[in-house]
Automatic annotation (TrEMBL), chain A:
Domain of life from the UniProt record: Bacteria
Annotated CDD domains: TPP_PYR_E1-PDHc-beta_like
Annotated source species: Microbacterium sp. LWS13-1.2
Domain annotation Transketolase-like pyrimidine-binding: ranges: 4-179
Name used for this protein in its record: Alpha-ketoacid dehydrogenase subunit beta
InterPro entries per UniProt: THDP-binding (IPR029061), Transketo_C/PFOR_II (IPR009014), Transketolase-like_Pyr-bd (IPR005475), Transketolase_C (IPR033248)
Keyword annotations from UniProtKB, A to Z: Oxidoreductase, Thiamine pyrophosphate
PANTHER family: PYRUVATE DEHYDROGENASE E1 COMPONENT BETA SUBUNIT, PYRUVATE DEHYDROGENASE E1 COMPONENT SUBUNIT BETA
Named cofactor requirement(s): thiamine diphosphate
From TrEMBL, chain B:
Domain of life: Bacteria
Cofactor(s) this protein cannot do without: thiamine diphosphate
Originating species: Microbacterium sp. LWS13-1.2
UniProt-recorded Gene Ontology molecular function terms: magnesium ion binding; oxidoreductase activity, acting on the aldehyde or oxo group of donors, disulfide as acceptor
Protein name (Swiss-Prot/TrEMBL): Pyruvate dehydrogenase (Acetyl-transferring) E1 component subunit alpha
Keyword annotations of the record: Oxidoreductase, Pyruvate, Thiamine pyrophosphate
Gene this chain is encoded by: pdhA
InterPro entries, alphabetized: Alpha-ketoacid_DH_E1_comp (IPR050771), DH_E1 (IPR001017), PdhA/BkdA (IPR017596), THDP-binding (IPR029061)
């Protein structure tokens, strides 16, 4: 086992995927000599050459649309979107073409495209560099959407995403790029848990805390803090947010009877809304309290100096835990 | 290259329909063109007759499509009458292993690539999004998002480059599409990577109700050189010129010289689709003026002048057109709609728990309507 940062784990994942399959190529802005603005593609140009590590013109629809054509031709493009907030120019190609081509052609044309997106906030970045657009993609059938929370998952799930014959939107929390963890580089993909499976990151018995990606660490911290308060939180790292592994989720909810969801993205029609609706449909009779959401505010992402007030933190999560535990909380007595 | 710091487009306006390269006058007289001639030096009477036949058959498919829509058999039909020379001339220059990315109006491209009668109507009937397997006829599913396919063609061509073959991909789109970001990005990518792709812009003067002057002041073909792509503006109602221009472009792409751009100046004689009312935005005189430039009568005149147009020939062409139209009609009338549960097929290549659950639920729900088993 190696101790690697998430950035390095993703870099290794790309390297192995490219070495294993000559049809895999990576493309994006500044990914060649520079190695990408986060250096995720560092060294790949030297190893695989410019035909497979493609520095593209600065045009997101162009990158995504040509990836579609390459997939038509039998290639497996791994596209790097430079930052979350810059995926929107490519949105049409993603939702109308990448997601639908298989369906439109009755399975004759596959789109094994991996769309890597350095994602979410907490790094004090400039405007448009900290967004959480996952709900747009989760709402689009034909895409798989995953978010990683640790170097091991980043390494394995990236390779699984590239090997998948479906398009995968792959969210990489940029605030975790430099966090280290154990990575088994020689793991066999067939032996690793499929990327659609959720992971119980911490067991508990009172509350199920559902989250993914950037918020997993915060959720685990909250669980540790709650323990001092005598509340046992089970933290589930969804890993895949389309599809969601409801088997793992409902088993937990049936055990605890209480649900809190947390994510950085805004609340309105977000992933949390979907999770709570689905959990309620499946586990209504098991619920001891109304499920709660802890999310970013329904605002454009705020300036860096204010982002700490936007991002759900440990205290906001604990406040929601108090709500589902029916203990005094920020909303006590103020809601209709 | 020398470059002045102030560049002013000097060509005539985008609306000048006669500033084009052509080999046949509107009266069907063969004229010389220094750039196009060499690409049709080998074109004999058999080839010319073949192009004529294709155009007649295409027009018959189109007429049948409109009729079927009027009779309630199709939900919609996008007519291509008037554009036969552009579609047939360019598509017939392709090799079978080249790959075409057409738009919804390119019925003639699908026909020339080997589409079956059902392929022209079942999508417009709402039975399928695409009836054919794109790899069977090396032609992508017809595109409805304006301009999106231009990028797909470039990406495909980038794949060809990596495979080291001499295939070419072709992007078909309209004058309206030339305003889209995707088409402009496609030209940037194609030029930057020297991709073997041909852009065929069918300038049929209208994007629904918007005249080409809303999309362009300067001729659309004039844009390509600014991207570093050689271009040609041809008479889109001259099948020979379209065929020649396409050969010019394909040859360049095949030899590794990169992309080329063709603007085919033509006219959509009918409505945008069967839902459209063109009398609201264009006048009769304009339509009549274009009727006199009809691509089929133009080639007929040439064939007649050369003594290649006899009763026997037109007889077989008409018979073939009748048979094809009957096939198209039959495909529409005998269409069977897929089973309800198949609506959930092919969303994903691999098992997906969300879809699997919905299939299970919907299957059980549908089973609820099954007739009760007979008592014994
Ligand atoms: C992205 C997008 N915007 C709008 C439309 C609606 N629409 C369909 S056809 C059309 C006009 C297209 O004109 P042009 O590109 O010149 O092609 P033509 O129909 O003349 O062949 C429009 C606006 C669409 N299909 N896609």
């Amino acid at each position: 086992m190696a101790q690697l940062t998430m950035a390095k784990a993703i870099n290794e994942g790309l390297r192995r995927a490219m070495a294993d399959d000559p049809k895999v190529l990576v493309m994006g802005e500044d990914i060649g000599k520079l190695g990408g603005v986060f250096r995720i593609t560092d060294g790949l140009l030297g190893e695989f050459g410019a035909q497979r590590v493609v520095d593209t013109p600065l045009a997101e629809a162009g990158i995504m649309g040509t990836a579609v054509g390459l997939a038509f031709r039998g290639y497996r493009p791994v596209v790097e979107i430079q930052f979350d907030g810059f995926v929107y120019p490519a949105f049409d190609q993603i939702v109308c073409q990448v997601a639908k081509l298989r369906y439109r052609t009755r399975g004759n044309v596959t789109m094994p495209i991996t769309i890597r997106i350095p994602w979410a906030g907490g790094v004090g970045a400039a405007e448009h560099h900290s967004e959480s657009p996952e709900a747009y993609f989760v709402h689009t059938s034909g895409l798989r959407v995953v978010a990683v929370s640790n170097p091991q998952d980043a390494y394995v799930m990236l390779r699984q995403a590239i090997a998948s014959n479906d398009p995968v939107v792959f969210f990489e929390p940029k605030r975790l790029y430099h966090s280290k963890g154990e990575v088994d580089l020689d793991v066999q993909l067939a032996d690793a848990p499929p990327m659609g499976l959720a992971r119980v990151a911490r067991e508990g018995s009172d509350v199920t805390l559902l989250t993914y990606g950037s918020q997993v660490g915060t959720a685990l911290d909250a669980a540790t803090a709650a323990e001092d308060d005598g509340v046992s939180i089970e933290v589930i790292d969804l890993r895949s947010i389309s599809p969601v592994d409801y088997r793992t989720v409902t088993a937990s909810v049936r055990k605890t009877g209480r649900v809190v969801v947390t994510h950085e993205a805004a609340r309105e029609a977000g992933v949390g809304a979907e999770l709570i609706a689905s959990v309620t449909e499946r586990c209504f009779n098991y619920l001891e309290a109304a499920p709660q959401r802890v999310t970013g505010h329904d605002i454009p992402y705020p300036p860096a100096k204010l982002e700490k007030h936007h991002l759900p933190d440990l205290d906001r999560i604990l406040d929601a835990v108090d709500r589902v535990m029916d203990r005094p909380n920020s909303l006590s007595g103020v809601r209709d | 290259m020398t470059m002045t710091h102030t560049l002013t487009p000097t060509a005539d306006l985008a609306t000048d329909i006669d500033d084009v390269a052509r080999l046949l006058t509107p009266d069907g007289e063969r004229i010389a063109d220094p750039e196009l001639d060499r690409w049709v030096a080998d074109v004999d009477a058999i080839t010319l007759r073949g192009l004529y036949r294709d155009m007649v058959l295409l027009r018959r498919i189109d007429t049948e499509g409109v009729a079927l829509q009027r009779q309630g058999q199709l939900g919609l039909w996008p007519p291509c009458q008037g554009q036969e020379a552009t579609q047939i001339g360019t598509a017939r220059a392709l090799r079978a292993d080249d790959f075409a990315f057409p738009s919804y109006r390119e019925t003639g491209v699908v026909y020339a690539r080997g589409g079956k009668p059902s392929d022209f109507v079942l999508a417009w009937r709402g039975e399928e999004h695409s009836t054919y397997n794109p790899y069977d006829i090396n032609t992508a599913t017809q595109q409805i998002i304006i301009g999106a396919q231009a990028l797909h063609a470039v990406g495909y061509a980038m794949g060809v480059q990596r495979d080291g073959t001499d295939q070419v991909s072709v992007a078909y789109f309209g004058d309206g599409a030339s305003s889209q970001g995707d088409v402009n990005e496609a030209m940037v990518f194609a030029a930057s990577f020297g991709a073997p792709v041909v852009f065929v812009c069918t300038n049929n003067q209208w994007a629904i109700s918007e005249p080409v002057s809303v999309q362009a002041k300067f001729p659309i073909a004039g844009r390509a050189p600014g991207f570093g792509i050689p271009s040609m503006r041809v008479d889109g109602n001259d099948v020979l010129a379209c065929f020649a221009a396409m050969r010019w472009a394909l040859d360049m792409a095949r030899r590794g010289e990169g992309p080329a751009f063709i603007e085919a100046v033509t006219y959509r004689m009918g409505p945008h689709t069967t839902s459209d009312d063109p009398t609201r935005y264009r006048d009769k005189e304009e339509v009549e003026k274009w009727r006199r430039r009809d691509p089929i009568t133009r080639l007929e005149a040439l064939l007649r002048a050369r003594g290649e147009f006899d009763e026997a020939f037109i007889g077989t062409v008409e018979d073939d057109a009748d048979a094809l139209a009957a096939g198209v009609r039959e495909a529409a009338m005998t269409a069977t709609t897929r089973a309800p549960l198949t609506v959930l097929d092919n969303v994903y290549a691999e098992p997906h728990s969300g879809i699997d659950e919905q299939r299970e639920w919907f299957g059980a729900y549908l089973d609820g309507f099954a007739p009760a088993p007979e008592e014994v």
